[in-house]
Amino acid sequence: MSRASPLIRPVTVYALVALVLLWTVAPVAWIATMSVQPEINYVSVPPRLRLEQTSLRWYAATLASPEFVGAMRTSALVSMATMLLCLTLGTLAAYPLARLNVPHRNLYLTLSVTARMVPAMILIIPMFLLLRSLQLLDTHLGLIAVYTAFLLPYVIWMLKNFFEQVPYALEAAARMDGCSRLGALVRVIIPVTAPGVVATAVFAFIGAWNEFLFGLILSTRLAVPVTVKLSSLVSTTFHSDTSLVAAAGMLALLPPVLLVFVLNRFIVRGLVEGMKY
Amino acid sequence: MEPPCAPHELTLPLILVEQQTKWRMRTTLPEQTELRPSLGQRLHRMSEARFGLLLLAPAALILLLFLAFPLAYAGAMSLFRIELTVSPDWRWAGPGNYLSVLGERAVRESLARTLAFAALTVGTSVLLALGVALLLNEPFRGRGFARVLVLLPWAVAPVVAGVLWRYLFHSNYGLVNALLLQAGLIPAYRVWLDSAPVAITIAALATAWKTLPFLALIILARLQSIPESLYRAARMDGAGVLARFRHVTLPQLRGILIFAVVMQTIVALQSFDLIFTLTRGGPGQGTVLLSYLVFINAFERLSLGQAAALAALLALLIVLLGGLAPLLAAGHRRREARNE
């Protein structure tokens, strides 16, 4: 290859990169196209996409539906609360696991790894019964509790990996300067690991926003997340306008995608470092 | 602020008597804290172990109530016959549910489908992720942008990914149909999702699409940490591109590739959301994977005991496979340490 023409290599690389980006973007690009074109344009064979007929009216219609907006609000609220709860509880739990001489530390770590593999499917029926007896079915609080429990093992593990990287000397210096134990955690360890904490926060938010099964079973009317709303739109609107479903799909995928693009620098490093065994 | 010391009563001018009572009140404060230490002091004096357990307690409480308890409850359910279509009673069944589940034809077919789907998903996603990682490790203009854009599917919910791929392969308005027709590869629009093998393949592709970014990311990180000196040495020994890949890159990537395979297998075995919106298990039972079968047993047939038994078997399979990852990683680290 090294003796080949100097042009071949860059051309191959760019061709492959174009292919990879096409594979990555095409599914989203297609539904994005559908969401701004009248159905007749992409149903016709071959599809005739007309630039002059591009319109945002399907987004306007979707955002005018109180049910869909309610689902978006539910998802936003539940994901935010889950993220905050995960970070608080996760930090408190990850600190002793990373730093302190806790009895049975390895047992807790093994349990947290195992908990991550438990499929949601096995939990769903008992979870339904549990939330029913706590009168938390179809409530935001119920979803927050369930999402937090499900995401917490990941969050603890990620934060533990970040906290472990902080040099002990830093913490010792803070303690010498009069910081309490919790003070050292809040004033030294968390600021030093801020990029990792941000990555973990994004992970928790996206995990909650994208969750589906629990929302499907545990919510019926008042606390339906957007993923569940979207799936019901897909299966029921055979006769109505598909552009509406496409617009709803775009709105459902937009918040996590924007987060990832804005905070990509934190996420790339955070995922790699945080997910390590 | 330090509270002032109580001055001796006799030295006080009368005018200050009122003031004195105020001082009294303030001087009593430190004595009280001596008797009942503040929260901060109690935390400070606590042994390291107890302090650690105290911090773990809130998370442990949530996990016990909303994870361990439901898990144990599901385990208990799997030992009872619970047919809600017949009666709300629990009748002791012992291992009965497990035996009947293992003997059911639908389960065996679903298991075969699940394994095929898992093999297809793991193969596609790990190989593609390796390719993408190698490509993104090459220097080219716009590499930073490409690395960010490639992350896109990671942020997309599996349910939404199912919708995306459904519309990609839709019989009436799918992009794939449109492109293939215009390229002259098919004579007319096809209904892709009405054949089970094709539907399984599309589901595997969609799953690979969704999980590829994460795998590519961790492989890329490992690639970047391979010391350049290894490649220089190989080049000095006259190794070409392929030889360098085979004898330097691949051995260095071994650990992470095994990790990727195990992680992806777990993802494949748990797949539900994506299939739910992509095919709804169809055509017929064509894409009913094990977790989907649990769902059907629980929420359509309302045989909760059977559903719990099947879910327990699935969870066992996943945990056994997933347990491999840390073990393999530890073994790999040990070998690496010995080699150095």
Structure write-up:
The complex is a heterodimer of chains A (277) and B (340). By secondary structure, chain A is mostly helical. Chain A has two domains: 8-53, no CATH class; 64-274, MetI-like (MetI-like fold, Orthogonal Bundle). Chain A is built from 14 helices and no strands. The longest helix of chain A is centred in the first third of the chain and has 34 residues, at 66-99. The model of chain A has no long low-confidence stretch (mean pLDDT 90). With 340 residues, chain B is an all-alpha fold. Chain B folds into two domains: 9-81, no CATH class; 94-339, MetI-like (MetI-like fold), CATH 1.10.3720. Chain B has a two-stranded antiparallel ribbon. In chain B, α11 (228-236) crosses α12. The longest helix of chain B is centred in the last third of the chain and has 36 residues, at 304-339. The chains are: A mainly alpha (277), B mainly alpha (340).
